[in-house]
Amino acid sequence: MNTKEAILSRRSTRRYLKKALPQELVEEVIEAGRYAPSGGNSQLTHFVVISDPEVLARLEKTVQEQFARMEITEGMYRSKVSSITRSKAGNYHFTYGAPVLIVTANRRDYDNHMADCVAAVENMLVRANDLDLGSCYINQLHWLNENEEIRRIFASFGLQEEERIYASLVVGYPDTEDGLPERKPLPRTGNKVTYIR
């Protein structure tokens, strides 16, 4: 798959097979993230890769509990509203059953923290598609990056006091008929382009 194909055919996968990924595929995805651009080539992004099913289950339970305590406010981002609503109803799974969660964090006091993490995640999403893996950008941990319980859990994984979570993704084998990610491009109805010539 060439670069253009990998980018234009990338879609979010929200159903995964209960099948572990080989470590070499995980490392291929991580390598793409580690080669993403960073402000001043600072390379400060911290990658936390979680594939232990018990750890993922505990993290999902904790995320559901924390969202269930939140209240919906006017003008709140619709996906965050959905996370809160579904958490209050119970049985909320922000990882969609994927076998691997990759979290990117960076220093809170570094002005390019979000951009560096998102660039790394985009590289990993595109590389996952190239490897015939499903993937999906995950916001939920970023929304909870100041939550004491989430911070405590990630501190146990090695996140430093000055680091915060800015972007994440899940990756795994898609639960589709042919075992490949959905690749039919969605029409572009937004993302306005203005040319100044």
Write the layout of secondary structure elements.
Elements: H1 3-8, H2 23-34, E1 46-50, H3 53-68, H4 78-89, E2 100-107, H5 113-130, E3 134-138, H6 140-143, H7 148-156, E4 163-172
Antiparallel strand pairs: 1-2, 2-4, 3-4
Could you walk me through the main structural features you see in this protein, from its secondary elements to its overall organization?
The mean pLDDT is 96. The longest helix is centred in the middle third of the chain and has 18 residues, at 113-130. It contains 7 helices and 4 strands; from the N terminus they run H-H-E-H-H-E-H-E-H-H-E. It is of the alpha+beta class and 197 residues long. The protein has one domain: 3-Layer(aba) Sandwich (NADH Oxidase). The chain has helices spanning 3-8, 23-34, 53-68, 78-89, 113-130, 140-143, 148-156, and strands spanning 46-50, 100-107, 134-138, 163-172. Helix 3 crosses helix 4. It has a 4-stranded antiparallel β-sheet with strand order 1-2-4-3.
Quick take:
The chain has 197 residues and is an alpha+beta fold.
The CATH top-level class label: Alpha Beta
Order of strands in the sheet with most strands: 1-2-4-3
Main sheet properties: 4 strands, antiparallel
CATH H-tier superfamily: NADH Oxidase
Overall residue-averaged pLDDT value: 96
Count of discrete structural domains? 1
Secondary-structure element string: HHEHHEHEHHE
- Which second-level CATH architecture applies? 3-Layer(aba) Sandwich
Percent of residues in beta strands?
5-15%
* Terminal residue distance: 33 Å
Shape: globular
Task: Bin the helical content.
Answer: 25-40%
**What Rg do the Cα atoms give?**
17 Å
Structural class: alpha+beta
Number of strands: 4
Tally of contiguous helical segments: 7
Weakly predicted, low-confidence segments: none
CATH fold title:
NADH Oxidase
